[in-house]
Amino acid sequence: MRLYSEVMSSLSKPASALVLFSGGQDSATCLAWALDRYERVETIGFHYGQRHSIEMEARLKVRAGLDQLEAWAGRLGEDYVIDLSGYGAIAESALTADRAIEMESSGLPSTFVPGRNLVFLTVASALAYRRGHDVMIGGMCETDFSGYPDCRRETIDATQQALSLGLDRTISIETPLMFLTKSETWSLAESLGGSSLVDLIVEESHTCYRGERGHRHDWGYGCGTCPACELRAKGWEAYKAGVPA
Ligand code: ZN
What we know:
The chain has 8 helices and 7 strands. By secondary structure, the chain is an alpha/beta fold. The chain has a 5-stranded parallel sheet, with helices on both faces.
């Protein structure tokens, strides 16, 4: 039997959400989180001149896998992929050009794409508006090693306010991973969908900056040495050891 407070909170929640979905571990976990909470969930992804298309393939595989999980059958709706390659040309970084992944004098890694989440959220809000979603969900996370400024909750709050004003409609941006470590993100996946979901994320989600899928580690595929692989591996080990960091 459900508690009265649970029933009330489910009644007051919007029925649908749009998830910013890249095919990585974080956004895959966010998508499962959304499916667990909303009756209708749609996804949006972006082409912005990434050096490899592996993550675009991973998106489709993760979506297909989630659609097979009985708990959320029928909730996963349309997927939209938006071409922002013009933006990628402006925002050239190690993710979109042939540059080494390293720390720069600004204190940010060369993988930082300036303003990426601001652009993504603005474009996503146009789709959300058209599709009748009042909620957008993203995997931004303050605890990432890199401290990308557009991943901080303060930036997301300001963006949420600007979009709501500019659209003259309240849009909320939910960031379920904002204060979680990578280990806690794995634990969240387990609590949402058990080992089937963890296995799906390990097997099909893609995080490696170099776009490598040649070698299968315990935590999934990747080069094993880029910052994204290192973070994912470290989180996995901590999760398996039962520690939060
Ligand atoms: Zn890698």
